[in-house]
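Re: that chain you flagged

S.,

Sorry for the slow reply, it's been a week of failed gels. I finally had a moment to sit down with the sequence you sent. For the record, here it is as I used it:
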Amino acid sequence: MAVLLLLGGPALGNDIVFLGGQVHLKDGSAPGKAVEIKLDCKGADHAVRQTVTDKKGKFNLKVERDEFDHVARALPATETDIGGDALAGSCSVIAVLPGFTSSSIPLGSLKIGKDLRLPDLVLTKSGK
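Prediction finished late last night. Pasting the structure tokens below so you have them in one place:
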């Protein structure tokens, strides 16, 4: 019985997963260049870079997943994190490309599916 409890213990903690994401322009085309993926959190002075896309708009976001398949917190793609430990509840994922505005993905209400995919981020040309 004690062996079962010991084996079951670590499964109750958060695990690290990579969520696949896609950024595209409003017309559905690829951005054609790297786009920054940032974590925008309420109360923070600025959004914090998490990773970048490839030219086709594909990226992976490293997160901690809790036992209820929700994002516990976003993790930096590299070990040189400037932003610290942002909890997911007040944060959204955005794409940043000069001349465009981005849709956002609120992490607090996101349930991680079995396919480990994020909803698409859409870039719309700014009016400037």
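What I noticed first: DSSP finds one helix and nine strands in the chain.

Talk soon,
D.
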